[in-house]
Amino acid sequence: RSNQDLQRLLLEYQQIEKELRESEKKYRTLVETMNEGFILCDKNQNITYINKSFLKMTQYPEEEIIGRPFSDFCNHDSKQRLSRQKELRKKGIRDPYEIILEGKKGDKIHCIVSPQAIFDKKEAFAGSFATITNISGVKEAERILRQNEAHLRSLMESATNFAIFRLSKNETDPSATNVVFVSPSIRDILCVDTPIDFGTWLDNIHPEDNKLAQETSGAIFKAEMLNQTLRIRHPETRQPHWIQIISKGIREIETGTSYANGIIVDISRLKTAEEELKQKSGHLQELNTALKILLERRDEDQRNMEERMLYNVKTRIMPHLERLKQANLNERLSRYLEAIEDQLMDVVSPFIQGLSSRFLDLTPTEIQVADYIREGKTS
Q: Which residues contact 258 (CB under 8 A, 6 or more apart)?
């Protein structure tokens, strides 16, 4: 029977050993395929095992890591932190912490270490293992975000003729509008002393724009894109100036909070320039009208001059030439007469088209009679 018991125990041991090997294989596969890095250290924090993700993260080959202290791969500040963390591991404390690893190429790798201590049967500290999560991308995003926030704050605080703002409103109290932030320049633009109180923003709206301002205030959280122009009246000088409000409404469904991000621009100079341009355009229109009248008058004067010249030629010159043609001139004088008539027609021909026919169809006798009448002669 003892032999049977021994065989049974041997079979159980073999079964347990098989299950352990299979379990170890599963866990090793899990560790090797996980996205996070994984390290196993002895009680002196020397690395005894690393997975492929840790190798990929640091770019070191395995043979340059195994057996070395984990601190060899950390920057100066992280080495001091590891020393403190070792004492915490001995006490069983396993809170995650951040370190910066240094890769083989000298690059800095921001990581979160999630540790777990290992104790032997006598509850003595035997080492630890940890998952290493690369958060360099998150750190870079945080850096860019901080940089953008700094630039935005600098822009917001140094603004002069414009103001950047963000408003919020919660659906549990829709009547309350909160000013999340606003540029200091809003004081001069809206002529208010306490711009953090949204209720003061409408205090100095021009009376004629009060209704429009109330509508704008109600629509600022709802509008996909709001673009409105209003007038502000200075509380002391009573002089108006123009502002333009451009904003976009955003609603967070999870929190029930609505936001309005936008900008308020003092466009008084632009409005003044537009008015001056309008006046200049009106003056230019008047000049164009006057110039058109002058050109029409010049054309009329030119037509009168041409008609007068043609009239004089017809009435004062042509009759004499006709008389000379009827005289008994010798051949030489006749040629001179023809040359004079040709030259005279060359002078008047450019403007003879289009003139009144009253100067073109008169016979020499009719022209002479018309000339007598014009001069007041009776015979």
A: 168, 169, 170, 171, 221, 249, 250, 251, 252
Per-residue model confidence as pLDDT tens digits over 281-297: 888 888 888 889 998 88
Contact indicator for 268, 242 with CB cutoff of 8 Å? yes
Helix ranges restricted to H, 42-195:
52-58, 76-90, 136-158, 186-190
Rounded to the nearest 10 degrees, the angle between the axes of helix 331-348 and helix 318-326 is 160
Neighbours of 45 (CB within 10 A): 19
**Separation between Cα atoms, residue 168 and residue 375, nearest integer Å:** 95
Can you give the C-alpha Rg of the chain in angstroms?
51
User: Could you give the CA distance from residue 137 to residue 107 in angstroms, rounded to a whole number?
Assistant: 13
Whole-angstrom CA distances from 137 to 83, 87, 99, 169, 234 are 26, 30, 14, 33, 50
Nearest CA to 57 among 84, 38, 30? 38
Q: Which residues of 107-143 are buried (b: 16+ CB within 10 A; e: fewer)?
A: eebbbbbebebeeeeeeebebbbbbbbbeeeebeeee
Residues 113-126 have pLDDT tens digits of 999 998 988 888 99
Angle (CA) 143 166 181, round 5°: 75
pLDDT in tens, 197-249: 988 998 999 999 999 998 888 888 876 788 999 999 988 888 888 999 999 98
